[in-house]
Design brief:
The longest helix has 29 residues. The chain starts with 11 loop residues before the first helix and ends in a 19-residue tail after the last helix. It is extended and about 70 Å long. A hairpin with a 4-residue loop joins strand 3 and strand 4. It is built from 3 helices and 5 strands. It has a domain of 113 residues. The chain is α+β, with helices and mostly antiparallel strands and 197 residues long. Strands 1, 2, 3, 4 and 5 form a 5-stranded antiparallel beta sheet that branches.
């Protein structure tokens, strides 16, 4: 086979599956919104330890109304001028850079998930060195960290809202199961919710 796939040795179904998988890589996402690609019989995903498959996601939407970040949480006297952020496995990670409006001091707020305590952390860091900041007061740090937390909170909420909107009940069940919340679903009028059972 010379490291490649010998298509003459494949069955007809294997050839169709291979063609479907190969053609999927070339299909623009916009083409998948309302229909599946023609002749597509199955999609395959490799799962590793600790991963879960979320099936039943729908893509047939064009827009969604979400809640914007509320500037009431903005740090007075500080301006966000750079954000280097990514969502790493759904968790925000990176840095947000703020500049003091009066004296030009810079402050970097790290954004990272801390696995042992299962929470987001926002350390106030030196703008260019891997160390904690030393030229800001505790009040300044608290105000800027609250600003960063509020923006990241909005980012997480918007991503969650979009995920909830495109997830079918099958996908929601898989998400809950992956989160360790795969419990029995109760209807709103279930007597157990009122404490009657």
């Amino acid at each position: 086979m010379n490291g490649g796939t010998d298509e003459t040795a494949l069955t007809a179904q294997q050839r169709r599956q291979l063609a479907a998988i190969q053609s999927l890589a070339r299909i623009p996402l916009a083409d998948l919104r309302d229909q599946s690609p023609p002749n597509l019989q199955a999609l395959y995903a490799e799962l590793q330890d600790g991963q879960a498959l979320i099936p039943g996601l729908k893509m047939g939407l064009g827009a969604l109304t979400v809640q914007r970040w509320d500037p009431v949480y903005a740090a007075k006297g500080w301006t966000l001028y750079v954000a280097d952020l990514t969502l790493d496995m759904g968790r925000p990670f990176g840095s947000m850079f703020y500049r003091n409006d009066e004296d030009g001091r810079a402050l970097r707020i790290g954004v990272k998930w801390h696995p042992p305590v299962q929470q987001l952390e926002f350390p106030a860091l030196h703008p260019s060195k891997p160390e904690l900041t030393s030229d800001c007061t505790a009040e300044e740090v608290a105000a800027v960290v609250l600003d960063a937390r509020s923006r990241i909170g909005t980012l997480v909420a918007v991503n969650s809202q979009i995920g909830s909107f495109v997830a079918t009940e099958e996908a929601e069940n898989a998400i809950l199961d992956a989160s360790g919340l795969g419990l029995e679903r109760l209807s709103e009028d279930d007597p157990r919710l009122a404490g009657d059972a």
